[in-house]
Design brief:
This protein is α/β, with parallel strands linked by helices. The chain has twelve helices and 22 strands. The N and C termini lie far apart (63 Å). It binds ligand LLP.
Amino acid sequence: MNAPVALKTLPGQPHIAYQNDGLMVEGVRLSDLASEYGTPLFVYSKAAMLSALGAYQRGFAGRKAQICYAMKANSSLAVLQVFADAGCGFDIVSGGELARVLAAGGDPAKVIFSGVGKTRAEMKQALQIGIGCFNVESEAELDVLSQVAVSAGKKAPVSLRVNPNVDPKTHPYISTGLKGNKFGIAHEDTLRAYRHAASLPGLHVVGIDCHIGSQITETTPYLDAMDRVLDLVAEIEAAGIPIHHIDFGGGLGINYNGDTPPEADMLWAQLLAKLDARGYGQRQLMIEPGRSLVGNAGVCLTEVMYLKPGEQKNFCIVDAAMNDLPRPAMYQAFHQIVPVTPRLGADAGDSVLYDVVGPVCESGDWIGRDRQLVVQAGDTLAVLSAGAYCMSMASNYNTRGRAAEILVDGTRAHLIRQRESAFDTFALEQLV
Ligand code: LLP
């Protein structure tokens, strides 16, 4: 046998590290959490969330900027509470998300409401609660929002989401700023839409926004989008419509598998230099980051149930599945999978190439393909970078209750969501 498996920090995840013989999140041993709470289990590091937020806060020091956490990435109440307590606002896309913000103690005045299909009921609810801004995505939506506001005796603060037609160079399903996407108002229609908005009795134009995609790992698409948005601001203001704030959306990527996105403060140093050069550096700025605040703050623990060797493939069957971790099935996404307690003494010769799959009855139910692992049934694995777009996209497919969630803060582990029972999954149903 060769030397023991190296014990180390995991790249891009400073708060998740091997210490002695096991993987820890901050000061908490993951094997202890798996035994106490069972698997699959999501575990998040509060310090990791705050340090990701810190990079943005450093980047914006001395500027007028509001960070609105895009809560679709992870909308668990205690996660929202971390960001609300740190002074963040929230980017929401439904009345349900607004209800969560309120339940978590978020400030409604710091809420911006994005999305192409807001209902009248959602608009009314948001107006009554007094959110900060509606990010409107079509001219038809302007008309409806104005009607709803007039009948509620309110003026709706609006920003128009413009589609800058910039390629964010990411997966097509998470690219949103190109002409063929359903999002935003086309660049060439923007001035007309602003004139329309300014003419409507129930609206008050306050800003402009754009969001070009997600898991963006390069700086250039942001710089290009910013140029286009600033050209539009100049045009709109020349037409006599003042723009109070500029919102550059979210989208900054994380390191899943050797990805090298810029750090948030580095990205913003470049973007702010452009804003300064063009004379917009002292404007009120908004951003809507999601993944980059929570993605690498979370892991999903899962137990190896069966090893199933085969002629073409060896399968490592684990108790987490596509209903818990939908990203591989939906986007062929890569999440690193590592042992929680590496088998000491194991060398490369003991490792086997596996497809790591879940129990769901679909061939698309895989968590990782062609992974070299040293495992036995009963071992616990950690699926990394599972803080964003995992639990928030989880489903009950195959009548699987959703996983429990833990928030680690130093040496304390808080259960922030109980595991759903089978009964919970059909509690709202009834027989005829
Ligand atoms: N603002 C708007 C208007 C958005 O549509 C999104 C994400 C964000 C902000 C936050 O983007 P982020 O900073 O997280 O990249 N489920 C996919 C990602 C979908 C992103 C949807 N919009 C995934 O798992 O990769």
